[in-house]
TrEMBL record:
SUPFAM superfamilies: P-loop containing nucleoside triphosphate hydrolases (SSF52540). This is ABC transporter ATP-binding protein. Keywords: ATP-binding, Nucleotide-binding, Transport. SMART domains: AAA. It comes from the Bacteria. CDD domains: ABC_MJ0796_LolCDE_FtsE. PANTHER family: ABC TRANSPORTER ABCH.1, IMPORT ATP-BINDING PROTEIN. GO terms for molecular function: ATP binding. The keyword Zinc does not apply. It comes from Nocardioides ginsengisoli. Residues 14-238 form the ABC transporter domain.
């Protein structure tokens, strides 16, 4: 598969300047070293690398779950470098959606309730949350399954519910950590098609994967090794 959409011009959604993350220890561990790159609105960025290469550290920084040790990070026009924890939490709720390898759905809540809770916790009214959840489930092709519990769904359907939950608040950035890692080929392909459709509608996506074939869906491709990230030429030189 390939991604042929042209990313938007405008200001970048993500801008990193010489970002480093070092964890204390003896010796200290430089999990992320001098990361400098930007992500444009509408990009689908894929990142590959071995375990321990720094992918999770980078994702946690992009998702405002961790702070850089040094450098500057701008998220959708907001310089987050000096924000307080509460400001970062608020910005994360407004600007970032997460899709994890393990779906992290509440077992005793319907698909609609799982998705609605994402914006309800952010401060939306109950009616607004349900409206957004209904629209998000329709966007991933699950409007007919909104009253089902996760246990009544396939792995692929559960992951699509997780995607709906992540996009319900219309985030500027969707972060996907091994989104097909727990799925068989058929369900994995359905999730990939869902992500491609969301990206084609303008959602900016960063996707971490061990699957180098899956990594080809992006319009930009990065590789991480020993805490350093570099952009690779797109296949075919595009």
């Amino acid at each position: 598969m390939s991604h042929d959409e042209t990313a938007g011009d405008g200001p970048p959604v993500v801008g990193l300047e010489h970002v480093t993350r070092t964890y204390r220890g003896n010796p200290p561990v430089a999990a992320l070293q001098d990361a400098t790159f930007s992500i444009r609105r509408g990009d689908l960025v894929t990142i590959v690398g071995r375990s321990g290469s720094g992918k999770s550290t980078l994702l946690n920084i992009l998702g405002l779950l961790d702070r850089p040790s040094s450098g500057r990070f701008v998220l959708d026009g907001h310089d987050v470098t000096g924000l307080s924890q509460s400001q970062r939490t608020s910005l994360r709720g407004m600007k970032v959606g997460f899709v994890h390898q393990s779906f992290q759905l509440l077992a005793h809540r319907s698909a609609l309730e799982n998705v609605a809770l994402a914006t309800l916790y952010r401060g939306d009214s109950s009616a607004r949350s349900r409206s957004r959840a209904t629209a998000a489930l329709a966007a991933v092709g699950l409007e007919a399954r909104q009253d089902q519990l996760p246990s009544a769904m396939s792995g692929g359907e559960r992951q699509r519910v997780a995607i709906a939950r992540a996009i319900a608040g219309e985030p500027a950035l969707l972060l996907c950590d091994e989104p097909t890692g727990n799925l068989d080929t058929h369900n994995g392909a359905a999730v990939v098609e869902t992500l491609l459709a969301r990206n084609a509608s303008g959602v900016t996506i960063v996707l971490i994967t061990h699957d180098r074939e899956l990594a080809l869906i992006g319009n930009r491709h990065f590789e991480m090794s020993d805490g350093r990230i570099r952009e690779k030429p797109s296949p075919g030189g595009a």
